[in-house]
Design goal:
Layout lengths: L5 H45 L5 H27 L6 H4 L3 H12 L1 H6 L5 H10 L8 H6 L5 H4 L1 H7 L1
Helix pairs in contact: 1-2
Length: 161
């Protein structure tokens, strides 16, 4: 859990922007697909309404097509409803000021960790907050300067489980 480098924060921002673009594109694609299915259902309805009622075979087939198209529209609407609205990009991005604060704070993590005023509960909260970094990496051994990840607090790991 060494200090986050500015390059890591930039990479996180780029990944967030890329994920937002993908989410937006998927949502847009689903919306376009729903519009196509609605058009097909409307076309099937018009065809059914134009058929001669005396021609029962054709009318029956056109009614089945219309029902199938309506079922596809319903499924597409449900798929769109299941797909969440993408978060605004501003909520996903780490601003320059916040990124700088994170870099400064992570530089102080070893000091915070070894401070006698820091309780075990706070240390566990720090570990949970930094869950993207595994305790088994060499970077984490640097943060816990009092020893390796397993040696820093062997009983704390067993108590948190």
């Amino acid at each position: 859990m060494t200090a986050l480098a500015p390059a890591e924060i930039d990479a996180l921002s780029r990944a967030g922007r890329a994920q937002h673009q993908i989410d937006t594109a998927l949502r847009s694609s689903t919306e376009r697909q729903l519009e196509r299915k609605r058009y097909a259902a409307a076309l099937a309805e018009r065809q059914f309404n134009r058929v001669d009622p005396d021609n029962r075979l054709v009318a029956g087939e056109l009614e089945r097509r219309w029902e199938a198209a309506l079922n596809e529209v319903r499924e597409a609407e449900e798929a769109l409803a299941r797909q969440s609205e993408p978060e605004p990009l501003s909520q996903r991005m780490i601003g320059k000021a916040l990124g700088d604060k994170i870099v400064v704070l992570t530089g102080r993590l070893p000091q915070i960790w070894t401070d006698p005023a820091t309780t075990d509960a706070r240390r566990k909260a720090l570990l949970r907050a930094s869950s993207t970094k595994s305790c088994s990496t060499e970077a984490n051994v640097t943060l816990l300067s009092s020893g390796s990840c397993g040696e820093a607090e062997p009983s704390a790991n067993s108590r948190s489980k």
